[in-house]
Amino acid sequence: MTIRANAFPEATQWSEGERCAMKKFCPLLVRALPPDVIFIADPEGSIMGLGSAVGPQFVGNGTSEMRLVGALREILAGGHLGYEEIQGVLKDVLTLKLEDGKSNGISESLLSAFLIGQRMNRETDRELKAYCLAFDELGPAPVADVRSLTHYGEPYDGNTRYFRSTLFVAAVRSCYGESSLLHGVEWMPPKVLMLQLLQFIFQVQVRLKEGVTEEQMLKFMGAKTNLSLHQGKKIIEAEEVGFAYISKREARPSLYSLIGLREQIKKRPSLATTEKVQQFIRAKGRESIVAGFYHEGYEEPLLMLMKRRDVHSGLVVKGEEGALSMTTRLRSASTSKGLPVNHCSGFRSVGIESACEMDGVSRQSFRLEVNAMDYGFEPTDTPRTNRSVSKNIELGLAALRGEKGPAYDRIVLNAGIVDHLLGCDGAEDVSLALERAKEAIDSGKAHKRLLNYIKMSHKVK
Question: What is the pTM of this model?
C-alpha cells in the first residue's frame, strides 16, 4: 500500500474507497500499531495524516536494524538499491535465529517489507545479482572432478499438480557422463494471496499443503537428505551414481532461516528467483545451469545471472507450473497470454564464429518453443500427481524400469532436449540425444543409478 501510494502510476494508486478508509481509520491505526509497522505504512509522514510523526523519526534499534531502515526508506519510495547496499543489509540481518535459539533482534516486519518491496519495485539487474551472490563469500565451493556438471534450479515450492521429472532425468543423464546437481528444500511456501485473504478475514492460520519437491521424493525413498557439500561432491564423482541433491538447509542455513518469514508474507521475494541460480558445488569440466520460470519478464534476468556465474551454457525453461518439466501434451488453443509451456531461452559457449558479448565471451543464443511431436512423441496429457509424493515416485520409477507412457516420454524428452540445447558432447543431433536417453532407461542403468544414490547417501563420509 505504501509503495502504491508513493510510486505506482496514477491509475494504479489508491482508489477513492481506499483513501476514504485510510482517512477514517488512520488515527486508530497510529494509536494501535507498533512503531516499526507505522514506519512501513508511512515512512515520510505524508500518508496517514496529521499527527503521524512516527515514520519520519523512526530509526530502528541497533546498527543492523538502522541500516535496514535506511534501505527501506529508499524502497518504500519506489527506489532501488546498489549492489553493496543489498549485500550489506542481507549479511547484517541473517540469520533470523542465533545458535543459542534466541532471535537476532531484527524486526520481522521490517525485513518482510524489505523482501516484498524490492519485488514490487521490479528488481534491477544489480539488485538480483546482489541477492544471487551475497553468500558466495562463505568460502570456496567444493570442486567435483567431473567433465560436465549441470546445476538444476527448480522452483523451491514444488509441483502441486503435475509429474515432476527432474530427479529421474538426472539419473538418466548420469548414465552417459552428464553429471547433475539438484538443490532445493523439503517445503517452501508459494505465493497464495487468496489464502492470505482468508487468514485475514477469519483470523486463522492455514498451512497450504506443500508441492512435491526432490527432497520429499528422496526422503520418501529412504535417501539421506542432509548431505554436506563435500558429501555431495563425492557422490557426483562416484562412477556408479553421478548426480546429487543438496538441501539449502545444509548449503546456506542463513537463507534457509527465512522460510518461516516467507510463509508469513505469502509473496515470492527476490530470493525465489536468485536461489535457482546457485552453484553449491563446482566442476573441473564445463558447467551449465538450467532454471525454470513462470512469469514473463524473468527469463532474461535469470540468463543474466547465469552469465554472471561464468557457466559455459545456460537454459531457462517454462515447464508446467513454472518448473523444468517440458510436456508432450498439445498446446491449448485457448492459450493467448504470455509465453507458452515448453518455451526455452538460453546460450552456450561456442567458437569464434559467434559474436562476442560485452564480457568478451563468445556465446550462441537461442530462443524456441519445443514441440514434442517434432521429435516423434505422441501427444499425451501430463500425469497428474495432485501433491502426492508417492504418486510422483510411482510414475518415475515405473518409467525408469522401462514402462512406456507419458512419464517415460517426459523423462526422455527433458533429458535429450536439455543435452542438445546445452551443447553437451554427443548431443549435437537431437535425435541421437533422445536415443541415448532411451537407452539409459531401457538398459536399466538409470534405475540402478537412482538406487545407488539412495544407498550411497547413507555411506558417504
Answer: 0.91
